[in-house]
Amino acid sequence: MAELSGKSVYITGGASGIGRAVVEEFVKEGAFVTVLDRSAEGLKELEQQFGEKVRTITGDVTIYEDHQRAVETAVEAFGKLDVLISNAGVFDAFAKFVNVTPEAMSEAYDILFSINVKGSFFAAKAAVEELKRTRGNIIFTLSGASFYPDGGGVWYTASKHAQLGLLRQLAFELAPDVRVNAVAPGGTLTALSVIAPLRPFVNIVDNETKAKSIKTRNPLKIVMASEDHVGAYLLLASDKARAITGEVISSDGGLVVRGL
Ligand code: NAD
């Protein structure tokens, strides 16, 4: 039987990259998926591909009401909510702290933390009552940058550490009703966008250069693709993980054995 048969899942940032790969896998495994994303174009593609199995909301994770709309949509369409995946995120492209002006530093902080951190607070808050009803679970998309330096600049690394704190405290507070876990991908070939205030301070590299850099950074020496991470999400979302909470599955080519 499919692992997620009949489950109702709400995911943010599901129109591209890792989120999109998760949507594909979850639909294949029998789930109904509600996707919030700011890319109307990406959402249209999902609707065309999956029809009645998905519902889409064009919105912004920094707006609480957009999450409320998404949760209401999921419950109306599929009768309940079993899983929240807070996945939407943006990047700082390794911008160097000392090179960035105070104005750009501040603007970058506000934008990046609003999306990566506040977006996760909002998603969890909007979904928690429905998740309690189903004894469901939350999965955050963290990063190798939740644990180690050099997975981004200070904005990204600090934001991904903050999400780890959110995951741990929520796992504690929401037990025994809701499991709270995370997947921490390593560098992955996606379109992860660099926030505007930091663009003047970084080199935006092409995919080939990005692939080379990803390969050299992880001990398994693989160029990770979005699809490489979906198994971890599938396990955590499924009833097979009923004893797992407060955990992070690192899907990063073995950063833990790299040594610093
Ligand atoms: P991506 O850009 O392909 O996907 C991110 C999606 O989030 C996009 O569809 C984008 O439109 C959406 N999004 C961004 N800001 C939004 C907002 N304010 N409101 C609504 N939607 C918004 O990038 P990805 O690499 O798949 O990133 C997904 C997650 O994976 C992020 O949390 C990222 O930090 C994390 N991650 C990525 C990598 C990597 O190397 N690509 C590594 C570790 C962790």
Please, could you describe this protein's structure?
The structure is a single chain. With 260 residues, the chain is of the alpha/beta class. The chain is 43% helix and 14% strand. The protein contains 7 helices and 7 strands. The chain has helices spanning 17-28, 40-50, 64-78, 102-134, 154-174, 207-217, 230-237, and strands spanning 8-12, 32-37, 54-58, 83-86, 137-141, 179-185, 248-251. The protein has a 7-stranded parallel beta sheet, sandwiched between helices. Helix 2 (40-50) links the parallel strand 2 and strand 3 (54-58). The protein starts with 7 loop residues before the first strand and ends in a 9-residue tail after the last strand. The mean pLDDT is 97.
Q: Layout of SSEs?
A:
Layout: E1 8-12, H1 17-28, E2 32-37, H2 40-50, E3 54-58, H3 64-78, E4 83-86, H4 102-134, E5 137-141, H5 154-174, E6 179-185, H6 207-217, H7 230-237, E7 248-251
Parallel strand pairs: 1-2, 1-4, 2-3, 4-5, 5-6, 6-7
Helix pairs in contact: 3-4, 4-5
The structure holds nicotinamide-adenine-dinucleotide.
Brief description of this entry?
The protein is an alpha/beta fold and about 260 residues long.
Keywords:
260 residues; alpha/beta; 7 helices; 7 strands; globular; binds nicotinamide-adenine-dinucleotide
Helix content: 40-55%
State the end-to-end CA separation.
43 Å
CA-based gyration radius? 17 Å
What is the overall shape? globular
